[in-house]
Design brief:
This protein is mostly helical. It is 42% helix and 7% strand.
Length: 172
C-alpha cells in the first residue's frame, strides 16, 4: 500500500513539474534560456531566502508562499533524510554559483549544535532540486541503498548536460 501511495506522490510531483521536461520548441527555448542564466553568477540564487527555525521538524515560513503543498512535503522529507541527501548530487546548476556540495544544500544551509536549522528557499524555485530529493527519499523508502540511489540519480540527470555538485560517492 505504501508503495502505491509513493508512486502516486511521485507521479503527481512529476506532472506538477512536467514543464521542465516538455519537449515543445517553446519550452525547449525557455529551458535553454534558464540554463544560460545559471551561467551568470548570482542569477541562479537571486531570489533565495534563508530562514532559521528552532529544529528540523519546524519548516520555514517561506514555504507558505507556494501554492504547491508538495514543495512543503518535500522539504519535510529532506529534514528526515539529511544523511542520505548529503551523498546525492544536485543537477540544477548550483554547483557553479554556490558552495553547494549536495542536494541537501539546496534545502538546508546549516544545522547548528543547538539544533537550529537554517533553511534555504533555493529548492522551491528549481524542479531538479525537488525531483532529486523526492526520488532519492522514495527510493530509500523502497529499500534502495545509498549507492544505488546515487547511481540512479547520476544516470537520470547526467544526460541533461548540466554539471553536478561536487558530491563524493558513498561507499558500497
Amino acid at each position: 500500500m505504501s508503495k502505491i501511495i509513493s508512486v502516486i506522490l511521485l507521479a503527481s510531483l512529476l506532472i506538477g513539474c512536467s514543464s521542465v521536461n516538455d519537449s515543445s520548441p517553446a519550452k525547449n527555448n525557455k529551458a535553454q534560456n534558464q540554463l544560460q542564466e545559471t551561467k551568470n553568477k548570482g542569477e541562479h540564487f537571486k531570489s533565495d531566502t534563508l530562514e532559521t527555525t528552532a529544529n528540523i521538524e519546524t519548516l520555514p515560513s517561506f514555504l507558505s508562499s507556494t501554492n504547491n503543498g508538495q514543495v512543503s512535503q518535500i522539504y519535510g522529507m529532506v529534514g528526515k533524510d539529511i544523511e542520505l541527501l548529503q551523498w546525492i548530487p544536485c543537477y540544477c546548476g548550483c554547483d557553479e554559483n554556490s558552495d553547494h556540495k549536495s542536494n541537501k544544500d539546496c534545502f538546508i544551509r546549516e544545522i547548528k549544535g543547538n539544533g537550529e536549522v537554517t533553511w534555504e528557499s533555493h529548492a522551491m524555485n528549481h524542479a531538479a532540486c525537488l525531483d532529486i530529493a523526492f526520488q532519492a527519499v522514495l527510493m530509500k523508502q523502497n529499500g534502495a541503498s545509498t549507492l544505488e540511489i546515487r547511481e540512479y540519480i547520476d544516470k537520470q540527470y547526467k544526460k541533461d548536460g548540466v554539471s553536478a555538485t561536487p558530491t563524493p560517492m558513498p561507499s558500497a
